[in-house]
Amino acid sequence: MSAADIKKTTEQKMTKSIESLKSNLQKIRTGRAHPGILEQINVDYYGNPTPLAQVANLGLADARTLTVQPWEKNMMAAVEKAIRESDLGLNPATQGNIIRVPMPALTEERRKELTKVVKGEGEDSKIAVRNLRRDANESLKKLAKDKEISEDDERRSQDDVQKMTDRFVAEIDKIISEKEKEIMTV
């Protein structure tokens, strides 16, 4: 493996860390309704825990109401129970063959708690990126030790990895601050 390969794989892994962060942040509630909030809920589907999106159609009725339409009529009670028992604090109501999930307005206290959760997610992502930097630097040192690259190339490559790390950490900070702003706006 060459220094360029190490840098390329490290960048790909750092990009995946950013994508993972964005995915995790989508699940954190803001003031608006978003079908992604319900995606991590599992429903008991004939004895198997199954993601809600695989047994029902998720949609938006308006800015503060989600709709869930199970594909099988006999799944209504199980879907409603799964939403109610999730840790999201939601209270679904069945209307015919659609379950309406009103999103309660966030209190100031809950908003502050959510920003702490967002900061924690950001910190976890930064740690992941820094661990990737460490792994890349160790691989580069091993290449230099095995005389596959020169010490100058090793130093240059480590500088490139550091610049890449700084760029990804800055992007994480930007994503976190945007999400905090989104949560705190009433």
UniProtKB/TrEMBL annotation:
GO biological process: cytoplasmic translational termination
Function: Responsible for the release of ribosomes from messenger RNA at the termination of protein biosynthesis. May increase the efficiency of translation by recycling ribosomes from one round of translation to another.
The encoding gene: frr
Region annotation (Disordered) ranges: 141-164
Signal peptide boundaries: none
Protein name: Ribosome-recycling factor
Organism name: Polynucleobacter victoriensis
Location in the cell: Cytoplasm
Keywords associated with the record: Cytoplasm, Protein biosynthesis
